[in-house]
Write a structure and sequence with these properties.
mainly alpha; Arc Repressor Mutant, subunit A; two-stranded antiparallel sheet; 4 helices; single chain; 73 residues; 2 strands
Length: 73
């Protein structure tokens, strides 16, 4: 896909979703709580954007259990 096509994609052109994709681009996994802090969004707002990205198969999400249950993207 060309850059011009990507910039016309309504899923990717949203600033928060683009921020999510750029932040996780060079990382294997990121905690949702880290994304909330970095992007300065509410957990509910982030969840909505992550569901959109997951629906488009642009991100994967999984639950991990460390000190407590957490969600990674």
């Amino acid at each position: 896909m060309k850059l011009e096509e990507l910039l016309r994609d309504p899923v990717i052109v949203n600033p928060i979703r683009l921020g999510i994709l750029l932040y996780i681009f060079h990382r294997d996994w990121v905690l949702v709580s880290e994304l909330v802090k970095v992007l300065e969004v509410t957990p509910g707002n982030l969840d909505s954007h992550l569901r959109t990205l997951k629906k488009e198969e642009l991100v994967e999400m999984k639950r991990v259990f460390r000190e407590r249950p957490r969600v990674m993207v």
